[in-house]
Amino acid sequence: MSSGPALVSILRQDSYLIASVHTALDDSEMIRLRNNLVEQIGRYRSNGVIIDVAALDVLDSFGAKTLATIAEMARLRGALTVIVGIQPDVAFAMVQLGMGTAGVPTALDLEEGLAYLNARVPRRPVRGPLGD
Fold it and tell me: What residue stretches are annotated with the STAS domain (predicted)?
């Protein structure tokens, strides 16, 4: 049972999932995010995923690798992933440490992330978890 605010919110918008990370996540929380997103891609038949990391002021190598893993797992389930909101200091540190996003597309913010997906993902009817 959680006693504080949610660490991550996963919202559905049309056929996309938007995961907003609200605070730094430890390794087990990153794994939970990965599992939740991959499960929800199938449940909602999502074809696009946006992971918003704007609230993060640090991203370690495990976090960066997990984001890349999420994107690959999503791709295998038929969804394109884009990471948005990487802060300038985080980007600088990632470059200095030789970390990257393993080819996962990035965008400045949520608006640009949605535009990126809209330009690349074929639209299909929105369906609920039971096909409604």
Answer: 6-117
Residue 76 lies in a domain: yes
Q: Give tens-digit pLDDT for 75-116.
A: 999 999 999 999 999 999 888 888 888 889 999 999 999 999
Q: Please state, in angstroms and rounded to a whole number, the distance separating the CA atoms of residues 79 and 73.
A: 9
Q: How many CB atoms lie within 10 A of CB 119?
A: 7
CATH value at residue 84: 3.30.750.24
Query: What is d(CA 57, CA 83) in angstroms, rounded to the nearest whole number?
Result: 15
- What is the reported pTM? 0.88
2 falls within a domain: no
Report the number of distinct structural domains present in the chain. 1
Is residue 129 situated within a structural domain?
no
Query: Which residue type does 80 have?
Result: L
